[in-house]
Amino acid sequence: MREETLFTIKTPYREEVPVKGFFFGSGHKTACFVGSLRGNEIQQMYIASQLIKKLSELESKGMLSPDNEFLVIPCINSFSMNIGKRFWPVDNTDINRMFPGYNQGETTQRIAAAVFEHVKGYKYGIQFASFYLAGDFVPHVRLMHTGYQSPELAKEFGMPFVLCREPTPIDTTTLNYNWQVFETDAYSIYTRETDSIDDSSAKIAIDAVLRFLNAFNFIHCKTFGACQSEVIQEKDFISIVSPNGGLFRRLVNPGDEVRKGQTLALILDPLRGDVKNKIESPCDSLVFFSHKAPTVTEHQICFFLQEK
Q1: How far apart are CA 296 and CA 278, in angstroms?
Q2: Which of 201, 197, 195 lies closest to 139 in space, CA to CA?
Q3: Are the CB atoms for 85 and 39 separated by under 8 Å?
């Protein structure tokens, strides 16, 4: 393993923040892994750190194939993480909406440009990502329809679902999209948590990465637990929104199979405590995403359902 400071970020009123990269092997730029881009992505940083431990172990045992280089960047936005902010705290902008970056632009554009300079050129790019909505997912691998995507390759992660989505204009400035445009096969792996550590789903992500690398003989180790992946489309999800605001009591979890008419959650009056509304499933389905916070606002997305 080789640890390097890829670049440093200047911050107001604080010392410069280094962005570290961890290199394994040498030769062709085979795979790059990116963890936390946002200040609340604790789980994503944790997964990257555990991948660093595993690759270090495999390298010490001679289980990495020769002529392949792997790069892991566990955390890019530690400044925001240190003060508990999701986005860049000075102007509240999102680094993952600034790619491929501009080295003469605003701070987050410069950070994105510096990151992209180091991560482009790899054959495969894997980001441990979080969603714009606070909640829990079924662990899955996600990719965008850019004309360069490969759902069949994504099946090599051996995760239950490969989720494909049509990019919106705002997606064109994400790391995943720009990786693909610059001819890197890019994938985003989603697990259950974001701002807390969930060991079980973190292990699912690490095992998926190892299966992917093993499938192409980049590493040589036994892998277990592969699923026959189902390719699904985000546009086919059934979105369930809250009829009103209040306290949110979730009765089902991501991965649960539910029946038509089954109660998914209760919305309680925050002062009186009585039930204001029930959220029910419109069909037999799988809960793919669920809101998690204890409160909910009117017309907020609470569930994504995959119809059976």
Answers
A1: 13
A2: 201
A3: yes
Segment 69-100, tens digit of pLDDT? 999 999 999 999 988 999 998 899 999 999 99
- Report the alpha-carbon distance of residue 144 to residue 181 in Å, rounded: 11
Which of 75, 72, 111, 74 has the alpha carbon at shortest distance from 91? 111
pLDDT at 11 over 80: no
Share of the chain above pLDDT 90, in %: 89
- Cβ burial 21-58 (10 Å sphere, 16+ → b, else e): bbebbeeebbbbbbbbbbbbbbbbbbbbbbbbebbeeb
106, burial (CB in 10 Å: exposed 0-12, middle 13-18, buried 19+): middle
The answer to whether 214 touches 261, Cβ cutoff 8 Å, is no
Cα–Cα dist 103/301, whole Å: 36
Q: In terms of DSSP H, where are the helices of 61-106?
A: 78-82
What is the distance of C-alpha 216 from the center of its chain?
23
> At residue 278, what are phi and psi to the nearest 5 degrees?
-110, 140
**Which three-class secondary structure state does DSSP give residue 120?**
coil
**Tokens for 80?**
């925001």
3-state DSSP percent of the chain in helix, strand and coil, to 5: 25, 35, 40
CA-to-CA dists, residue 306 to 56, 215, 234, 235, 256, angstroms = 38, 28, 9, 10, 11
Amino acid at 13: Y
Pairing mode, strands 135-137 and 230-233: unpaired
